[in-house]
Amino acid sequence: MASNPKVSLVYSKRGEVTEEEAEELPFDTAKVCRVARTLLKNRIAPEDALEQPEEISRTALERVHDPDYLATLRHPLALFSAMHPFLPATPGEVAILKLPSFLHQWRILHPLLRPWVWLVNKHAAIFPNKIYTPQFVDEMIREAETDAGGTLLAARRAMETGIDIHIGGGATFAEQASCSAGHLFADIPVAIRALQAEKRIKRALVADLCAHFGDGTANCLTDDDSAFTFSMHQKGLWPDLPDNSHSSDLHVELEEGTSDQEYMEILEKHLPKLLDEHRPDLVFLVTSDSCLSGDEHANLSLSTEGLVRRDAYVAKACVERKIPLAITISGGMLGKSADEGAYASVRNLIETYGGAWETSEV
User: Fold this and answer.
1) CATH code linked to domain 6-65+137-356
2) For residue 267, what are the CA distances in angstroms to 128, 248, 251, 309?
3) pLDDT tens digits for 274-332?
4) Which end of the chain, N or C, is more open, meaning fewer C-beta atoms within 10 Å of its C-beta?
């Protein structure tokens, strides 16, 4: 880590969405694109500062995900069923119905196809007139692989510059053998396992500050002394799991209407103690606009200033302890943000610490 921490940036143009296309989307999937474009437009960062990631390797994915699950995403029968145009509504289910009838009796086929059915259904809602060829499905998967590669790259850069922001990532609902809410690959657990395999870190800490509980990340790292998961999220919000089923190491539930001051008091109570007790080699921060007041799918009451203060506090706590910080900007599931909290937070961190592109020191 640099003696004088700076902010570096990772952003993938793969799957970039224009503002015109974004108007037709059911969720704010253009948020990360907008953050990147606004940084460039306002000259907060030059275009060459946005480092482009590569697709995550199959080896890296298999350290976390079930090999059968990964194979399912490109299962030959699934791809065969994608050869025809789909009807609107539930095209993934229509795809299965198009298969020969004897395959419907093959019980293993349905659970095997489940991730792929979700994938096609999700994109059919966005592009209802799209013909789903195997090539198109493959590109959707490659976008997810590149997003996971971005989080791994951000972690590596954070260990060099001090702070790296992946304008993307944060797929906190992906499990070892299933996908949920648009998340195919558990990018943060995958990055942790890759860095441990490279012997660059021994311990990591995940601070998940999305309003929704990232059960996928927690489950992928459960019962693992080398990775501590800390989650602050709204009580009773999706996914609302049964009592005692939460697998995060520290699970803090917030009441509806939690304000800036209340939120910060809770964060300040827990985070310094966790950093000092567990002494991680790397911290992952999952930041999200979902905590903002007025969000369509959550009921917390942070202001934009409060969200900026929250992320700045985490960054300062890590910098003071000389712990590299990799930040992911979770997006794609929530309704269109009332405020550009993600952009304001990224801009504040760059203005506070400076951009790594402004100096040769790493």
Assistant:
1) 3.40.800.20
2) 42, 16, 12, 11
3) 999 999 999 999 998 888 887 777 888 899 999 999 999 999 999 999 999 999 997 54
4) C
